[in-house]
Amino acid sequence: MQRDEALLREYYAAAPADISLSDIDLERVPSHVSIIMDGNGRWAQARGLDRSKGHVAGVDALRETVTTSVRLGLDALSVYAFSTENWRRPQREVDLLMHLFATTLVKELPLFHQENVRLRFLGDLEALPKKTYDVFQRGLDETSGHTGMIFALAVNYGSRAEIARACRQIADEVATGIIDASAIDEQVVAEHLYTTGMPDPELLIRTSGELRLSNYLLWQLAYTEFYVTDMMWPDFNRWEFLRAVRAFQSRNRRFGGVVAS
Ligand code: IPE
Ligand code: IPE
Ligand code: MG
Description:
Layout: H1 5-11, E1 32-36, H2 40-46, H3 51-72, E2 76-83, H4 91-114, E3 118-122, H5 130-143, E4 150-157, H6 159-175, H7 186-191, E5 203-206, E6 225-228, H8 238-250
Parallel strand pairs: 1-2, 1-5, 2-4, 3-4, 5-6
One 3-methylbut-3-enyl trihydrogen diphosphate binds next to helix 2.
């Protein structure tokens, strides 16, 4: 994706001592970065606040991350906002999150217009409260003509549910003769996932130090590089993003082969 280098340099001007824009190769920025935004609750609890305050603070970190991604020239940014397992949380927290998704999306639509960002959702939206569902549909409609970065928000997303859904759809297509069972290959499976048409993430970032996937993009992350930071999500910022890209660029991606030394 096109980037404005002068704007990017200005954006990254006041660098902390350990990182600067010149530490990364702008020609090798990952095209799709995915983030498990974790640690909102602990961030709030450490400050003696209600967990909900952590989710609210997390919105600011997400806004900065979208801007950073656009300025770095990513083709796609995807983020895990609510898992199929997160319904197990107290009803009050679930309600707050659903409300926050709806109000935030309405508030941030001008940013998506300004930055030419196209919105996508990963997950089963049918199960969402009507207001949240309606706002999401509006976001999809209003940004469908945008040609810039894809911003994919995973809400009511679970990777196992996604794969089971793909299996059902493919089985239906076999039963009705649309495709032959022998034609089911990796590409056919990928085309039935929520991420259809998107490249797999090259870099996965998880905040709050947890070393697990929590049912996120199990298929799509097959060869993705991982970067885990102890930072809680509300503290995540453009500098930590750069540290993640720097770590990514230092990796030797072999994809099962060997690299000539
Ligand atoms: C991530 O923060 C946000 C969601 C899962 C919605 P958490 O709410 O999981 O925060 P911790 O992990 O409890 O600190
Ligand atoms: C993963 O975080 C889901 C999201 C970030 C939306 P969780 O906080 O739900 O994951 P676990 O429970 O620690 O595995
Ligand atoms: Mg968590």
